[in-house]
Amino acid sequence: xxxxxxxxxxxxxxxxxxxxxxxxxxxxxxxxxxxxxxxxxxxxxxxxxxxxxxxxxxxxxxxxxxxxxxxxxxxxxxxxxxxxxxxxxxxxxxxxxxxxxxxxxxxxxxxxxxxxxxxxxxxxxxxxxxxxxxxxxxxxxxxxxxxxxxxxxxxxxxxxxxxxxxxxxxxxxxxxxxxxxxxxxxxxxxxxxxxxxxxxxxxxxxxxxxxxxxxxxxxxxxxxxxxxxxxxxxxxxxxxxxxxxxxxxxxxxxxxxxxxxxxxxxxxxxxxxxxxxxxxxxxxxxxxxxxxxxxxxxxxxxxxxxxxxxxxxxxxxxxxxxxxxxxxxxxxxxxxxxxxxxxxxxxxxxxxxxxxxxxxxxxxxxxxxxxxxxxxxxxxxxxxxxxxxxxxxxxxxxxxxxxxxxxxxxxxxxxxx
Amino acid sequence: xxxxxxxxxxxxxxxxxxxxxxxxxxxxxxxxxxxxxxxxxxxxxxxxxxxxxxxxxxxxxxxxxxxxxxxxxxxxxxxxxxxxxxxxxxxxxxxxxxxxxxxxxxxxxxxxxxxxxxxxxxxxxxxxxxxxxxxxxxxxxxxxxxxxxxxxxxxxxxxxxxxxxxxxxxxxxxxxxxxxxxxxxxxxxxxxxxxxxxxxxxxxxxxxxxxxxxxxxxxxxxxxxxxxxxxxxxxxxxxxxxxxxxxxxxxxxxxxxxxxxxxxxxxxxxxxxxxxxxxxxxxxxxxxxxxxxxxxxxxxxxxx
Lengths: 417, 304
Hints:
The complex is a heterodimer of chains A (417) and B (304). Chain A is built from twelve helices and 20 strands. Chain A is an alpha+beta fold. Chain A folds into three domains: 22-93, ATP-grasp fold, A domain (Dna Ligase, domain 1, 2-Layer Sandwich), CATH 3.30.1490; 97-221, D-amino Acid Aminotransferase, Chain A, domain 1 (2-Layer Sandwich), CATH 3.30.470.20; 235-416, Rossmann fold (3-Layer(aba) Sandwich). The two termini of chain A are 45 Å apart. The relative contact order of chain A is 0.09. Chain B is of the alpha/beta class and 304 residues long. Chain B has two domains: 11-121, NAD(P)-binding Rossmann-like Domain (Rossmann fold, 3-Layer(aba) Sandwich); 127-297, Rossmann fold (3-Layer(aba) Sandwich). In chain B, helix 4 (103-115) links the parallel strand 6 and strand 7 (119-121). At the A-B interface, strand 8, strand 9, strand 11, helix 6 and helix 8 of A face helix 4, helix 5, helix 6 and helix 9 of B.
């Protein structure tokens, strides 16, 4: 799921004719000054990064004059906030806030719904999760019928939005639904929806995530990596996406993740899974043995050897790994020899740099015997701890992770000594 | 008997002339599926493996009468049109082995399917396989692999993972048992059928004694299955493994989703709810054969 930054989201709101604060994006302090001059009143300068909670992290500053706006931008640009480098700020008019509302749309995949849910609340400006249920009005939308203006009016009316504001509030919710639909969003929020002291209703901040499979219809959004993630893509993630885009045969999925072990951590395993479900099995097993997995990788759907090789190289590119595991925890329908060839090439390049390195290779399914032979033959002269297994251990997540742990402990001891 | 598929089930393949469509149509046929016709706009009059190809589903119906099932091998961004076409031709079962389908398209086709009283399997489902009868989609992979590792028997299999829907039958066969029907619900964020839609069919199936299920973190399939069992609508033994205990919390896509998911979705939470419903939850997937043997000893599972 590709998350948009605030200013990108607001550009979509503008297309839907939804009122947003006057403002623009600045990449330098001078640009920030010029935007503030143009606005001609007090402004707010906001960092444009992926993370939420920017205000609390010091990423939002107020400025009464263009001078102050320039200084605020100078302080924010180039800073690191919530671990992310600030490259852009949004300079906007400061709103005179009377009330803060909330509007959001998500998809409910439950069996009794399978539809978009429109949410409205009179308690805006905070995390919607912390708002009591009686302050949130919900509506399941029948997509064949669509979402109508009076649906929005009814939602607002349920929470007693005053008559003088109810029409602009409803229009904003309808605009939000149109944006949700037209851009294939999976999540879209206005938070807060501000009622100003002079009675205007404005989308003051937004959060939009585009569905991975819908991003392809909207090249104008410039989505770098159309993949579900809670964090911005890393350099390795971007390379993996490049590999995927260049060759659509099969899947090469790779994402770095923050995997933490409860209790003692005995080592870090570069993990190369096969098939979403099977790949998860391996992580479950390794974690239970106190082995951390810094990445979730998956090659499946019959990729060519070149793609498997690149995935393995990405896994090996991670600093600080104490072992490599090919977690083929599935009896694959695809001929496994393509995997075997790709893996052998990667191991022959990587292992000479890492004497004694622990390597666990599990491959099962179609052409298993031939594939295991390729792995054995291709790695037999390498100076490393290599274990190769097939179908008889396809669900032995515990046993394989235990063996991995033993090898890692030996290897680490050797490294120290 | 089997769920969904019998020897006489009449099947049309949409997108039959494509690389996937033609290969899988042959696979389905070799396993015994009654594939009667194919559809690819612009390719009417051709044949694939002896199967006649039509320009539209309507034209195929005119020549062969109504179909029971359509299997769609259509690129994700074009799937919606094909599914609407099938629904308008009164097809009540649609199997969609298609990934990367835009989310709003899925919502529209699922809504239209519901209005038409049809069942939609997927998108992102590799299909259904009933050993000895046939397959819809490509579950089983190759004829060689499916014939060897999909043994007829009495364990019903449902999976949220395509790869695991091939692995469970393999492991079950190695343990000396067989499968009644294997079904993959699909990997897209919204699917037309969930565990709770499929389980009642296995409940009705006299060939199914117990269920083996591969679950995953996220979504609500497992919670809904637990609810079904708790309310007495499914009474056969279920053994399940739920993967993804490690998943970082941030992988749940938003705070807002919690409002409708009511706190469900995490693997630990799923396991708790499943156990409360009396479902057998495995700590490790390799305990499945052992559990099946126990059920056999208790007289709850036939071998052949």
